[in-house]
Amino acid sequence: xxxxxEGLVNSDRKRGIDLFNKTWDLIDxxxxxxxxxLNMIHSAHTSRYHWGxxxxxxxxxxxx
Length: 64
What we know:
The protein is an all-alpha fold. It has one domain (12-63). It has three helices and no strands. It has helices at 3-28, 34-54, 57-63. It is elongated and about 45 Å long. The termini are far apart.
């Protein structure tokens, strides 16, 4: 794997993780606002996108 490709893989993996965690923080949030709901949905979809680029089947299943 070239250095630049490795950097992209690491970037996608980090974004997938960060957005997955953000989604769960929003799921657990008490008194979620409509804006929080929209951010939660977008975070879940974006996390799944990044995992689709670099993840294993388990990551994709969790994202679904």
